[in-house]
Every structure is written in structure tokens, then in C-alpha cells.
Write a structure and sequence with these properties.
This protein has 2 domains: 3-214, 3-Layer(aba) Sandwich (Rossmann fold), CATH 3.40.50; 219-280, no CATH class. Helix content is 34%, strand content 28%. The chain has helices spanning 42-49, 70-73, 91-101, 107-116, 130-142, 160-173, 188-194, 212-218, 226-231, 254-260, 271-280, and strands at 3-13, 18-27, 31-35, 57-62, 76-80, 148-152, 180-184, 197-202, 205-211, 220-224, 239-243, 246-251, 265-268. The strands form 3 sheets. A 6-stranded mixed beta sheet has the order 5-6-7-3-8-9, sandwiched between helices. A 4-stranded antiparallel beta sheet has the order 11-12-10-13, with helices on both faces. Helix 6 (160-173) links the parallel strand 6 (148-152) and strand 7. Helix 3 runs antiparallel to helix 4 and helix 4 runs antiparallel to helix 5 (130-142). The two termini are 34 Å apart.
Length: 283
């Protein structure tokens, strides 16, 4: 399987934080969700892939080649939560600027996105809400016809209806077999709908990189009292924590846990719950 991006041993050191030998792939034709708490290193990973920061160690291979080049940038669309366009410009003026930057700029698609997102073409960006600015960035990223989208909190600031519409647009983008998406998001319910793989980063390290379906169909949470918890084989458990009057334990094989502990309640685990159990649970 070809990769849109292959990250190997990526390391970046700061005074108060280290991105520590991060490795994962974004297979061509897939959506990979990048999750982790604030400060975990997600944005650092994305900036390193795009060549916006220098790395101390490791390799980034884009489109089965090497580091991102000027030619590659034509094929990569990027949207950042904190990225803004000059506030005195309007979307129409932004379109003219983009036409001069990208050889594959599609003005018709851009105009269609502006209408679909209800963005007034001649209103200055300084008068846009955060959600409107995010929709403008997404419209611009899609309109130069990239093969690969990198999205850092791209649905942040959007209401649930618009988030759902944006996800549908991303899924439409994925109809082309060579298209791929890497999306960092705190809204794990969006990733449960759209992602094929989940990469979980905690304190600068990859905790796991797994198919989303494996997480949702196989992982589970055992909920039980103290007496039952003491009887659990700790070898079956990834992490555990006491929650109010019950114990909760994360397992990677829900069916096995149900067979071994028939008196306990074993429920499917959401991506949010899996992440919380790794971060806040004992191991």
C-alpha cells in the first residue's frame, strides 16, 4: 500500500517539550485522525510534515518521496485552527491571491464553496466569526485541487450541523482513490464518523496507531465494584481508574472480557473513553 505520508522517528526538542521519535503512516486513500490532549504534540507533527519547522531527528516521506518540496505544496491543502488571512481582504480578494500562488486553482469550485458555506464574497474577513474564517480556509484549501489534506482542528468553532456538512465534503474528497487526509481534532465523534485510522499522541509520544474499526469493535470498558475489580486478571487490562462508586478498566478484547467476567458490565469504548483511560488511568 502506498503512503501519502510516512513519518519515521520524528523528534523535535524544545526547552519544555520533546516530540519523541514519533512514527506513523497515512496510507493513500485513507483518513487518519490524530488525537491527544492540548500540548501533546499534534500541531508540532503537522508543522514538521509541512516543513514549517526543522526536525532534530527522523524522516518524513511525502508521496513515497522525501521531504515536502515546492512542487509538493501544490498537492497539499493545509488548514490550521490559528491560521488567518489578512483581515482587510475579502474572500473574493483571497481568491485572486490564491490564483497567483497555485497553478491548479479552480475559481469555480472556490465560488461554489463560498455559496455553500454562506460566506459573503465581498465582506472583509475582519468581520467574520471564527467559524466563518475556518470555512473560508477549508474552501481555499479544497479549491487548489490537492491530493492530500492536512487539517489542524479544522472543525473547531463550527456548529454540529456545519461540522457534519464539512465531514461530508471531506468524504466526497475521498472518492478519488489517490486522495488522503490527516486530521487533528479534539472532536472525536467526528473522527468516529470519518476516520479510517487513529493515531494517539500523549506527551510527545505515539501511544498507538490503529484502525478505527479495531478500536470501536474490539476495545471495551469493564465496570464493576471493588470486590470484582480485585478478581480481574491485570494482564487483561490496559489501564484502570476508580470512578465514583465503581471501578472502570480498559481492555483491548471486549468479547474475551465478557466471557471471563460474566458478572461484570462490559461496554463498548468510545475513542474519547479510550483516550481518557490511557491519560488518566493507572497502568
Amino acid at each position: 500500500m502506498k503512503n501519502a505520508v510516512k513519518v519515521t522517528g520524528l523528534t523535535k526538542r524544545y526547552d519544555d517539550f520533546t516530540l519523541n521519535h514519533v512514527s506513523f503512516d497515512v496510507p493513500q486513500g485513507s483518513i487518519v485522525g490524530l488525537i491527544g490532549e492540548n500540548g501533546a504534540g499534534k500541531s508540532t507533527v503537522i508543522k514538521a510534515i509541512l516543513g514549517m519547522i526543522n526536525r532534530d531527528e527522523g524522516e518524513v516521506s511525502l508521496f513515497e518521496g522525501g521531504d515536502i518540496t515546492t512542487q509538493d505544496k501544490e498537492q497539499v491543502g493545509a488548514v490550521f485552527d490559528d491560521k488567518g488571512y489578512p483581515e482587510m481582504l475579502s474572500p473574493r480578494q483571497i481568491g485572486k491571491v490564491m490564483k497567483g500562488i497555485f497553478s491548479r486553482w479552480d475559481a469555480q469550485s472556490y465560488g461554489r464553496f463560498l455559496k455553500e458555506f454562506s460566506l459573503p464574497a465581498d465582506k472583509k474577513i475582519k468581520n467574520f466569526s471564527k467559524g466563518m474564517r475556518m470555512k473560508l480556509a477549508i474552501a481555499a484549501a479544497l479549491s487548489h485541487q490537492p491530493r492530500f489534506l492536512i487539517l489542524d482542528e479544522a472543525t473547531s468553532g463550527l456548529d454540529p450541523v456545519m461540522r457534519d456538512d464539512i465531514l461530508d465534503i471531506f468524504l466526497d474528497f475521498m472518492q478519488e482513490e489517490e486522495h488522503s487526509i490527516l486530521v487533528s481534532s479534539h472532536i472525536t465523534s467526528d473522527l468516529e464518523k470519518a476516520a479510517d485510522y487513529i493515531v494517539f499522541i500523549h506527551q510527545g509520544q505515539v501511544i498507538f496507531s490503529k484502525p478505527k474499526d479495531e478500536l470501536l469493535t474490539q476495545y471495551g470498558i469493564i465496570k464493576c465494584g471493588a470486590a470484582q475489580f480485585d478478581q480481574l486478571d491485570k494482564g487483561d487490562i490496559i489501564s484502570w481508574r476508580k470512578q465514583d462508586y465503581e471501578w472502570q478498566a480498559l481492555v483491548s478484547d471486549r468479547d474475551l472480557a465478557m466471557r471471563r467476567y460474566p458478572k461484570a458490565v462490559v461496554t463498548p469504548a468510545t475513542i474519547d473513553e479510550i483516550m481518557l483511560m490511557y491519560v488518566k488511568g493507572e497502568q
